[in-house]
């Protein structure tokens, strides 16, 4: 791998999508064996208006998540490589579309991870906004409550994830835009880059004069803006990329008269 684009990089923004977690046993959404590829109708349950309008849709959503692989998944080599990069002293910020929490579980400091699409580890009331651990609601679903309601106000509960038709948190998105514009390198890993406004962070990085490297199995709309596009498996390529970034960063900090 020619990683000349790593030279001089001291700040790295890493935009991650579902593809980084497939090696942990979590299926992606749009791939050949993706959740919505196998069951296109299930996407309806992830649409906010339909979720709110129908108890049957909510029941389908909760059933889909009750046995979701992410609850027991462990970080894979790609997650660990990013954690190692962070712990090596490189200024890393992870901007993730994933809701699985595996970056934090791998060891990346939670304050350095922006969960752009929320988290599956909390449940939010759509009326009073109270948040509770997901385990509590999932236990109710497993016991037969197909449409769990808030214990405080009776409002409809949903996972604290951003559904289709919902806006991203404005503060979180604004922070992500600042990071994209001020990092010397944007790594886009395992994302189709088809979901906006998150995908446009790539263009924002390039417009600010930063480098873009895309690591993804399939072509993305932002490939023409990248200095390199890597199609190799993420679990193998990302550790190599992180090793190159660590070496480049170490050379910057190394005294000029060092042997």
Brief summary of the model shown:
The chain has 259 residues and is an alpha/beta fold. The protein has 9 helices and 9 strands. It has 2 domains: 1-26 and 75-117 and 166-254, Rossmann fold (3-Layer(aba) Sandwich), CATH 3.40.50.1220; 29-67 and 119-161, SIR2/SIRT2 'Small Domain'.
Walk me through what this model shows.
This protein has nine helices and nine strands. By secondary structure, the protein is of the alpha/beta class. The chain folds into two domains: 1-26 and 75-117 and 166-254, TPP-binding domain (Rossmann fold); 29-67 and 119-161, SIR2/SIRT2 'Small Domain', CATH 3.30.1600.10. The strands form two sheets. A six-stranded parallel β-sheet has the order 3-2-1-7-8-9, with helices on both faces. Strands 5-4-6 form a three-stranded antiparallel β-sheet. β2, α5 and β3 (113-115) form a beta-alpha-beta unit. α4 packs parallel to α9. The protein is elongated and about 55 Å long.
List the helices and strands and how they pair.
Layout: E1 11-16, H1 35-38, H2 48-53, H3 55-66, H4 77-87, E2 91-96, H5 102-106, E3 113-115, E4 118-125, E5 131-133, H6 134-142, E6 157-161, H7 170-182, E7 185-189, H8 201-207, E8 211-215, E9 228-230, H9 234-253
Parallel strand pairs: 1-2, 1-7, 2-3, 7-8, 8-9
Antiparallel strand pairs: 4-5, 4-6
Helix pairs in contact: 4-9, 7-8
């Amino acid at each position: 791998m020619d990683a000349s684009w790593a030279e001089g990089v001291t700040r790295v923004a890493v935009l991650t999508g579902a593809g980084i977690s497939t090696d942990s046993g979590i299926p992606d959404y749009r791939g050949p064996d993706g959740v919505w590829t196998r069951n296109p109708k299930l996407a309806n349950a992830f649409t906010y208006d339909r979720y709110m309008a129908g108890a049957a849709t909510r029941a389908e959503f909760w059933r889909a998540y009750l046995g979701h692989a992410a609850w027991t998944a462990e970080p894979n080599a790609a997650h660990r490589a990013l954690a190692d990069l962070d712990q090596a002293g490189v200024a890393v910020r992870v901007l993730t579309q994933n809701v699985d929490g595996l970056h934090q579980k791998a060891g990346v400091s939670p304050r350095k991870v922006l969960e752009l699409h929320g988290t599956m580890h909390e449940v939010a009331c759509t009326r009073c906004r109270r948040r509770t651990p997901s385990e509590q609601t999932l236990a109710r679903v497993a016991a037969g409550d197909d449409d769990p309601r808030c214990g405080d106000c009776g409002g409809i509960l949903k996972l604290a994830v951003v559904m289709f038709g919902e806006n991203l948190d404005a503060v979180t998105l604004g922070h992500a835009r600042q990071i994209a514009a001020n990092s010397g390198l944007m790594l886009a890993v395992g994302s189709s880059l088809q979901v906006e406004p998150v995908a446009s962070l790539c263009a924002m990085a390039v417009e600010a004069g930063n480098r873009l490297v895309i690591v993804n199995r399939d072509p993305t709309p932002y490939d023409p803006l990248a200095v390199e596009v890597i199609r190799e498996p993420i679990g193998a390529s990302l550790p190599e990329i992180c090793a190159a970034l660590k070496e480049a960063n170490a050379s910057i900090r190394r005294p000029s008269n060092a042997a």
